[in-house]
Amino acid sequence: MKRILNYFTKFEIGLWLSSVVVIIATFFIFKDKDYLTLCASIIGATFLILNAKGNPLGQFLTIIFSILYGFISFKFSYYGEMITYLFMSMPMAIFALISWLKNPYKGNKSQVTVNRISKKEVVFMMLLTLVVTVIFYYILKYFNTANLLPSTFSVTTSFIAVYLTFRRSPYFALAYAMNDLVLIILWSLASVTDISYLSVVICFIVFLVNDMYGFISWKRMEKKQKED
To answer: What is the pTM of this model?
Structure first.
């Protein structure tokens, strides 16, 4: 416990605790309780704070979250989210985990070395994203995915996020923040049909706050690593 308290700042501990409290409080407001959603949300809040520290354990929890979230999405026929997380986010999280483990900062296994990608790679990433988006659009259309356009855009933002995570760029957190905004819209639409899904909306609002902090944390980490 002492090591954990020393590892995280007071703000980070407060952010994680407040995130979990909001998630649990929202969960118990509704009569139809989905404990799988609660479990996934708490894991999500945990991997976000670990990712903000550049800790590879965060990527391991991302893999678990992707499996759970994929199943939750399947239950509401959000096949776009299911396919995205099970067949893109989860495999990329595995690659990211390997990449982060192979690139510790000065031998510190709890902090990854921050990477800076070139302009040419950014162009390559955007072209690859375009290809992935078009392919997924037709896949999702074939499966009659609910809210097709937002679901497709979620694929776009998710792919950019997982690519930047794999490449250890601080901007992965901003891409995830953009994806959070898309998911807030998607699950808000779902909550019109089933109010219990409002808990998922709250979950992604919490994720948005955490991802914004993650970007700030990584920029600080990048600056400190350059100075060392």
So the answer is: 0.89
End-to-end CA distance of the chain: 28
Over its C-alpha atoms, the chain yields an Rg (Å, rounded) of 17
Q: What is the DSSP string of the chain?
A: -HHHHHHS-HHHHHHHHHHHHHHHHHHTTSSS--HHHHHHHHHHHHHHHHHHTT-THHHHHHHHHHHHHHHHHHHTT-HHHHHHIIIIIHHHHHHHHHHHHHSEETTEEEEEPP----HHHHHHHHHHHHHHHHHHHHHHHHTT-SSHHHHHHHHHHHHHHHHHHHTT-TTHHHHHHHHHHHHHHHHHHHHHH-GGGHHHHHHHHHHHHHHHHHHHHHHHHHHHHHH-
CA angle, residues 182, 186, 188, in degrees to nearest 5:
115
Residue with tokens 């997924």: 136
Burial letters for 112-133: b for 16+ Cβ neighbours within 10 Å, e otherwise? bbbeeeeeeeeeebeeebeebb
Q: What is the pLDDT of residues 15-73, one digit of tens each?
A: 999 999 998 988 888 756 678 888 988 999 999 999 999 999 999 999 999 999 888 88
| Predicted confidence (pLDDT) per residue in 149-187, tens digit | 888 898 899 999 999 999 999 999 999 999 999 989 888
